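yo

u said u wanted the structure for the complex thing, so here. seqs first:
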Amino acid sequence: MITRQAAWAALAQVRDPELDEPITDLGFVRKLRVDGGAVHAQLRLPTYFCAPNFVFMMVADADEALRALPGAAEVRVELDDHFTGGEISEGVGRGFEATFPGLADGDLADLRSVFRRKAFIAAQARLCRDLLAQGWTPADLTGLRLGDLPPSPLAADYERARAAVGQPVDPDAWLLTQPDGSRVPAERVDRHLRFGNALRVSVEGNAEHCRALLAARYSDDLGGAA
Amino acid sequence: MYHKDGVSYYVVDGHVHYWNASPENRNKYGEGFIECFYNYQTSLSPAEWIWPYDKFCKYTEQDMIHDLFETGYVDTAIFQPTYLRDFYPGEGFNTTERNAVLKERHPDRFVLNGSFDPRDGDEGLRVLEEQAERYGLRGVKLYTAEWKGDSKGYKLSDPAAYRYLEKCRELGIVNVHVHKGPTIWPLNRDAFDVADIDDVATAFPDLNFIVEHVGLPRLEDFCWIATQEPNVYGGLAVAMPFIHTRPRYFAQIIGELLYWLGEDKLLFASDYAIWSPRWLVERFVDFQIPEDMQGEYGTLSVAAKKRILGLNAAALYDLKVPAEAQLDSVPAGATAGGGS
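structre next:
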């Protein structure tokens, strides 16, 4: 027996890979129906032409998250109003390449890791921007370890994004690292923070576009399943 | 021309369309495409600038002339064709041929750009030559996510695209506008990736590459590339309307662009008919980086606004700028707006 709350919480773990925000916060869950062990989710997107690779990741992740629920017997995730909606809803269990024969030359692992690295940089930039606003200097940041940070939602989010790229989150770990885990040298800290900030602005701008387009597209049904 | 506080701004709208997305001309993909465009208009425009959907699908020559030149302050507008024949099987969406009809009737108002698709082989090269001769093309607009039968897009670094860029060079087509979209081959790669622009900007240093929508959704990669390639520019279509709905985001986007590219590499554009230039020009001239962000981004000067609104595009397309709007005609004491 699955509760609707449990199914919703499972979907809240699924993130848009590009925006790095939960699909539940973005309004992408249109309907969620739970009946005993049967779960049926309908997803929706800001545009008819959202990139099929990102979309497939979200649908596949939602499918996996719901199947992992104890007691899940029948899980169905459908994608509405998208040019590949039929293919993806049908193909979610078979993998991306098999869903788009002839159009892909591999699965989505590489693309996922690109976006995990970007999410890591953006989360770090968000946290650093906040620390700089509190009076820390760029030079200070290069000497900080995770344990030196006061607890905050931005710090917690950075730890999540670090873990996703396989970097340590213990108190001794250096705060300012590259996506590959190497420490940012003091002489490159300004450039590193500038680039991180450009990435943050890009991602946040994209998220604004997505929210605005979704609201315009579903202006008669803003609440979604929330 | 736009006049404010004693300053004259020469205005080039760097990205305009004269499309036909009427029901007779489109299939279900074309319908999805124009609905997405319409949602851009409805979600990011002031209420008085939102059109009825039917008008948005197919507007008239009179609408366009009125919105750009009679009330929109635009001196010159650059047609950026987007063919989309797989979505608009009738006559295509916004073709060079369709735009040419308006160019013929208003020769001093429009720059007519062409287009090519590297998947068209030798025949496409011949057509490009013909178009260049017939229309005197100085620029082309490319949409890398264009569908063609089973193919869902291409990269500029494909060998076939190199042949076309070599042909552009030979024909005197010096401005290459690139618009990324959601699909590409192979479909498992990031279709929005701008790395191929880095590749061709290095290989063709004598061509200018204007990345439309300033690389969004890959602003950061675009900025990184543009710092290293002197022949890479950013078109501001799609970023501009944030000035209304999210002015603080607009400040950050323009601030990043000024930092990475500089004010001489950015081109104003409305993406008409998604947005109309009148309100964008007015708001942009009045805009200033909010005070609490000026430490990070500095301010937007009158000179920067003049360059972005028209002088940069005028330089790329050899447009004649009236004396009153030249850069050195900014009167002493003119302020950059935004109430600062």
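The two ends of chain A are 21 Å apart (CA to CA). Chain A is about 45% helix and 10% strand.
cya
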